[in-house]
Amino acid sequence: MSDLTAATKATTLIEALPWLAEFHGATVVVKYGGNAMTDDALKAAFAEDVVFLRYAGLRPVVVHGGGPQISAHLDRLGIESSFTAGLRVTSPEAMEVVRMVLVGQVNRNVVGLINDHGPFGVGMSGEDAHLFTAARKYAVVDGEQVDIGQVGDIVKVEAGTVRALLDNGRIPVISSIARSDDGTVYNVNADTAAAELAVALGAQKLVVLTDVEGLYADWPASDDIIGSITDDELAELLPSLSSGMLPKMGACLTAVRGGVPQAHVLDGRVPHALLLEIFTDEGVGTMVVPAGKTGRPQDTDDTDETTDPADKEARA
Length: 316
Ligand SMILES: Nc1ncnc2c1ncn2[C@@H]1O[C@H](COP(=O)(O)OP(=O)(O)O)[C@@H](O)[C@H]1O
Ligand SMILES: CC(=O)N[C@@H](CCC(=O)OP(=O)(O)O)C(=O)O
Known about the structure:
Elements: H1 3-15, H2 17-23, E1 27-32, H3 40-55, E2 59-64, H4 67-76, E3 83-84, E4 87-88, H5 92-115, E5 121-125, E6 132-141, E7 144-157, H6 160-167, E8 171-175, E9 177-179, E10 185-187, H7 190-201, E11 205-210, E12 228-230, H8 231-237, H9 245-257, E13 262-267, H10 273-279, E14 286-289, H11 312-315
Parallel strand pairs: 1-2, 1-11, 2-8, 5-8, 11-13, 12-14
Antiparallel strand pairs: 3-4, 6-7, 9-10, 13-14
Helix pairs in contact: 4-5, 7-9
């Protein structure tokens, strides 16, 4: 190894020090979107990142999606998929498929990849131990309520089992299915489920991995990324958002307004995006913070390159 390479590697490692100190013991909820599960190498890198967080002393929790995987399965069965305001219109027949694909296929897959590194991953459906209780959700389109079938909004989170798993050194991996008080099973958008869980756990971060670099300011006309946005700014922007970004950014807003200090949307197509976000000085993607907090140092004129944990808020 040349001296230069050694020095670069050491610099990269030592750059992580303040963030390791900052996030030691922190609960981080990671939403792993179906669109970010595109190739095997990326999926393996994601599992490595989550296990890395666990070994680094954080408490990662994974909430996974699987929208494209559900659509592919519905397609094979000849059942049409349609979305309203970014949510799948879910007939009872489609609900069976949603549950089967998320709990039986995607969850097993993510747990398996994590467990290649040790006995950490434990899969759960939001139905288990009453983790998520839901009530039927109606989409709102042009001010009108629209029936979208068996889609739920989470009304209660019983996070005790997730906490117990974390206390036991495990990495909970959760499917976004919920049941109602009357036992009906509901399809919950995974971004929404991740945000509600992050709030209930008092997480320090919500990280949402998807298939775009972050929130584009004027999508699809331009691909200018919004690096940092406050909850108030996001609340104003939200009605103009479309497709999958609507529930995603709504979820970030819910998390931050529910007391989670930072919510991030990252490009899951970038290998190790999760580690880069948490342990390096440059944040990546879009960060949502409570109003009153400033952007990352590079977003401001008075960048001072500091990595003192006391200045974490300056990055946030
Ligand atoms: N303003 C925007 N910025 C970025 N992406 C957007 C925006 N509006 C809509 N999108 C779309 O939202 C998609 C991400 O949502 P979604 O497909 O639900 O992803 P995931 O499966 O990761 O949850 C992007 O691939 C993009 O096509
Ligand atoms: C109600 C609703 O839309 N549920 C989603 C649940 C999966 C999900 O959210 O997957 P992604 O994160 O990959 O989009 C669906 O059926 O597609």
